[in-house]
Amino acid sequence: MLKDVGSDTLMEALESMELRYSIEPQSVSCSITWRREAPSKCERESITGLNTVEEDQIVMLAMPNEFLQLVNSMKQDKSLHASTTHLPEQLPGKTATLVVLGLDVYQCDQKNYTDQAEDGEHQLFIYLLVASVWSQALVALQLQKNMGVLFMETWQELGEYITLLTKSVAKRPFKKQCENMAFSFCVEGSWASGIRVEKDGAGLHQVWKRQIQQFNRVSPLMAAAITAKYPSPQLLLQAYRECSMEQEKSNLLADLMVKSSGNDKERRIGPELSRKIYTYMISSNPELILDLNG
To answer: What is the mean pLDDT of residues 259-278?
Structure first.
């Protein structure tokens, strides 16, 4: 791969992104693979060091003549036996992509020599360059080997593709962790879906009820009792304004009765929650801590 003059462009792209890379013999020639350092764990799941883990991604590079040789062998043998070292017979556990570099330029160059009819190999390549011919090979590669094929014209395109793919591979563990992470503060069910408020105001009462439920240790029954007495924030504020004493405002909700779930027993809202809601409704300090007891 590095024998081509244009490969310097690929190296420059990797260096510009400050990516760590090494040039090593590969089991699949002219290929690019990825490795990461992952923590190694003992039986007790404690981190003891770092292990090098090879990713499942592999990109194989083929020049136009090599790609056309592959297409020709597939047409003749009706199989995926490798005619070049770029396509091994088995890629267990690998997500493979074959990049064909410079096919359009190669096609133009070949058509400039159509007068060389005596050149049998040249005439074969002209035939194979017909899109309908090699497109059948692409379908076979995708269906039988789960291998994608990309056509690029310059090393610069290849460099940009490799850098983007490297970023994607690097972010995989983080994305996987985010997908599997359970957030304790995200309530399951309809709570997380939000409330739809219609133009006529339908749904506002539910929004007000959910707002009360955001207080620590406030059950749906407690929120329902408060919002039944004061169906909107404006009505609650009006009730506070009608109180003459500060203590009266703070304890306005304290004596509201709440039925316990599963039985007919009732209990009071209590002065602590009443104080929190009052402070929340009248305070203009966004940094104020309402729940002093956690």
So the answer is: 82
Angle at 49 between CA 44 and CA 52, to 5 degrees: 115
Q: What is the sign, positive or negative, of the torsion defined by CA atoms of 259, 260, 265, 267?
A: negative
Per CATH, is 6-171 categorized as 3.90.380.10? no
Q: Are 222 and 256 in contact (CB under 8 A)?
A: no
- Pairing mode of beta strands 95-101, 257-259: unpaired
Mean pLDDT score of the chain, rounded to an integer? 76
**Secondary structure letter of residue 20 according to DSSP:** -
Reply yes or no on whether the pLDDT at 281 is more than 80: yes
Q: What share of the chain is helix, strand, coil (3-state, %, to 5)?
A: 45, 15, 40
Residues 6+ apart with CB under 8 A from 191: 210
Fold of 199-282: DNA polymerase; domain 1 (1.10.150)
Report yes or no: 286 and 277 within 8 Å, Cβ to Cβ. Answer: no
- The pLDDT > 70 percentage for the chain reads 72
Q: Where are the domains of the chain?
A: 6-171, 199-282
Distances (CA, A) of 267 to 212, 222, 252, 278: 18, 10, 15, 20
Among candidates 147, 144, 30, which has minimal Cα distance to 80? 144
166 with 15: CB under 8 angstroms?
A: no
**What pLDDT does residue 85 have?**
39
For residue 90, give both structure tokens.
């088995």
CA 151, 154, 157, 159 dihedral sign is positive
Does the pLDDT value for residue 24 go beyond 80? Answer: yes
At 82 the pLDDT is 44
